[in-house]
Amino acid sequence: MKTYGPILGVKLGNQKVVVVSTHDLAKKVLLQDDFNGRPDGFFFRVRAFGKRKGLLFTEGPTWSQCRRFTMRHLKTFGLGQSTMEKQLTVEAENLVNYLRRASANGPVPIHTTFDIAVLNSLWCMFAGHRFDYENDKLIEILEVVHDAFRLMDTMGGIVSQMPFLRFIIPELSGYNELMRILQKLWNFLDEEISVHEKQLSGNQPQDLIDAFLLEISSINGERDRTIFDRENLLVLCLDLFLAGSKTTTDTLATTLLFLSLHSEWMKILQEELDNVVGRSRSPTLKDYSSLPMMEAFLAEVQRFLILAPLGVPHKTMKAITLNEYSIPKASDTIVLLDFHSVHNDPTHWDHPEEFRPQRFLNDNGRFCPNNASMPFGLGKRRCPGEMLARKSLFLFLAYVVHYFDVEISPEHGPPDINGYDGFTISPKPFYLKLATRSDVV
């Protein structure tokens, strides 16, 4: 950015890319509907059977209709309701029980520790049930999810820029691996939908999948003009399954990695929990507003540990001017936002290179949000699962910090702070030693 400025146009093969940096310009892009398109390349279609389906990579009426339906029914089945809070508590308790069992056998694999807890919090709303930690089939599919995020970058990898390579070097281009991953994910979700189809009765849906299936069955004609078909349901489930869980699990895992390397912050958070919650009960979501250091710590984690540095790619919906630069309406032009520059912009952050949760506290020690932070995006494309993600991050982290002391495993050594570079930056495998804290009922 220092060399070429905050708006950079590059060409990667045949792919035109515009990279937008700094907080103010990124905010301007995110709040303009004309930037709300999604790329329409090979990678973005192959995951949806060669079509434009689902929630993540669609635009216009198809996207708005799908988002409205998804948000309405997620709220019906718990999002933002007391049932969601109860479910999160159940998952937090099960997470602690799992960690107690796992830590008894030695260091715990933290990079996968939060996968099931986070997924269950969402799965109950859109599939109506939860998974056990011993479910081998789920453990296998979660490994596939991790592979998927490492395999492809924000723009879909080289096979997206040069799709013909899948015919010439299908193995080297990553195409064979991509299709192997997609096939496993499709099969897993297809089986879930099939179970719902067999059990569906009456017109009282129990979860989002049921609601979608009832919409499909109620359509008479003009099927090509609606989002309600089985393929779109499968791709919507894929979007929720991947985007709805991966970033939250990686944020939690990376936070534990960070705490293991900076034990002073572990002690600070434990002391605050002990003072507010005490040692005779578990933390609850109602405690959050009484834990300003925990709240500030999580806010700083999401500013400092940027796991999605380029976010989800955008596309212009029409020719537009941004700070005197003309950006054309072109189906093959991708707009990327540099969130690292957003969260390190010196015009909005004092000494952004420092990890300093106190920047989110006022003089009275109360939490004070900074609107320059945008870990979930802004505008109409803002993450629809933000509320669930924020509450999951707090409660799961609070439970781990409350119930366990965390140390670097002597046999594995310090974890690598540098993660795998893919669609997001995900932590490399690492193990930590967990010891149960005393005096907790």
Automatic annotation (TrEMBL):
GO terms for biological process: organic acid metabolic process; xenobiotic metabolic process. Its main location: endoplasmic reticulum. The keyword Transcription does not apply. It is found in: Endoplasmic reticulum membrane; Microsome membrane. GO terms for cellular component: endoplasmic reticulum membrane. Heme binds at C383. GO terms for molecular function: heme binding; iron ion binding; oxidoreductase activity, acting on paired donors, with incorporation or reduction of molecular oxygen, reduced flavin or flavoprotein as one donor, and incorporation of one atom of oxygen; steroid hydroxylase activity. May be involved in the metabolism of insect hormones and in the breakdown of synthetic insecticides. This is Putative cytochrome P450 305a1.
